[in-house]
Amino acid sequence: MDKINIKRLAEELNLSTSTISRALQDSYQIGAATKQRVLELAKKLNYQPNPHASSLGSSRSKTIAVVIPEVFDSYFALAINGIEAVAQAQGYHVLIYLTHERLQLEQEILHAFRSGRVDGVVISVSAETTSTAHIQALRAQGVPVVFFDRAADDVDTARVTTNDTESAYQATCHLIERRCTTLLLLSISRHLSIGRQRIAGYRQALTEHGLAFRDDDIVDCGQDPEANRELLEATLRARPGIDGIISTVEMLTESTYQACYALHRRIPQDVKVVSFYNSRSAAILNPSLTTISQPAFEMGKTAATLLLKALRNPKSTLVAENVVLPSVLTIRNSTASIG
């Protein structure tokens, strides 16, 4: 049996090979009716594309990069699944890069992309990212970039986030409704928009309920779980009146529980805890954890969809794309009312 190739499809449909190629790549330049004719014939003749030859001919790698701070947080694992679901369905490979919350490593990774290694980038910036020249340089070379979860304010491109201000506000209100009066907010970055928004929501809730906002009620944590535990122990020991804790990062939850146990501060009797947390383990922690859960899988799918849309249509702009997906407060035993 003769091998079915683009030339054979072109002859059958009386179209040019370039039209066939663009139709198979879902190009915006080809009308829907023509695409449908090409796809139907390709299916009928069992056409199997040559990914290597296709990428050479189009000067594309058919690969996108996902750049994230770490994979300890189950949010990022779920988001990657969402990104891959969209990318694989459209014939793209996905490469995962970790910055380990370091700006220098993030800069090196994006600099390497300027050689044409990937067609586009989905990124959640590191906790250290204050300068965005490396992101701007990549975009200047025509590589589309989409932010998800953590975005850089001064880069005009698409971003997929959740309602961080409202979510932190809800978490704080919930603790106040459970009669907490001295609340800590655990953060890993105040300069990122995601950190500022969660602090803003926390502050708004305190103000509306007549509670004072104090800067030292925000605890700046790092990447070392042991150091975070020691910091929280010292804070709780120095301030025994603390009766509520909001963790804005999943990785800080373990340190919070450990610090409370070490000081015999009972959860929820002495301290109530809420965490931004996506892992299913929340329900089996002791006590089970009240959580703010982000729609991680959907955020990943949406970010990948926006990126691939830009790759299909180079004339499209990502500037106006700003998608906000709501998070969900799930109440469990770590904030239970006692007595």
Automatic annotation (TrEMBL):
Q: Do you know which Pfam families this protein is assigned to?
A: LacI, Peripla_BP_1
CDD domains xrefs: HTH_LacI (cd01392), PBP1_LacI_sugar_binding-like (cd06267)
Q: Where is the signal peptide?
A: none
Q: Which domain of life is it from?
A: Bacteria
Per UniProt, which keywords does this protein have?
DNA-binding, Transcription, Transcription regulation
- The residues covered by the HTH lacI-type domain are 4-58
Q: Which GO terms describe its molecular function?
A: DNA-binding transcription factor activity; transcription cis-regulatory region binding
Identify this protein by name: LacI family transcriptional regulator
Species name:
Hymenobacter nivis
